[in-house]
Amino acid sequence: MARQSTSEHKMSREEAGRLGGKATSKNHDRSFYQMIGKKGGEATSDAHDTDFYKQIGRKGGEATSETHNKDFYREIGRKGGSN
């Protein structure tokens, strides 16, 4: 549970973020998050070119390959092939 902000204890950024996130989630539904996600995606798309997406895709692929084995790729391949 988050601590109260007092003169002896300043709230950390982590605590403040957690409290803000909880308050936001109480006041908004799923469609709100879908809307802001779409806006963020569009803004990112407007601000970056294809090289940016190639770079982050490569980084993500490398990170995934470091933490997963062949069985993981086999399973996601099966799932993707069944659609």
Number of strands: 0
Q: Main β-sheet: number of strands, strand sense, barrel status?
A: none
Q: Structural class, judged by helices and strands?
A: mainly alpha
Q: Which sequence of SSEs, written as H and E, runs from N to C?
A: HHHH
Strand content: under 5%
What percent of residues adopt helix (DSSP H or I)? over 70%
Q: What is the 3D shape?
A: extended
Radius of gyration: 20 Å
What average pLDDT do the residues reach?
91
Distance between the termini: 43 Å
Number of helices: 4
Description:
This protein is mainly alpha-helical and 83 residues long. It is built from four helices and no strands. The radius of gyration is 20 Å and the shape is extended. 0% of the residues are buried.
Task: Sum this structure up briefly.
The chain has helices spanning about 15-25, 30-45, 50-65, 70-80. It is mostly helical.
Keywords for this entry:
mainly alpha; 83 residues; 4 helices; 0% strand; 76% helix; single chain; extended
Layout of helices and strands, plus pairs?
Blueprint (H helix, E strand, L loop, with lengths): L12 H15 L2 H18 L2 H18 L2 H12 L2
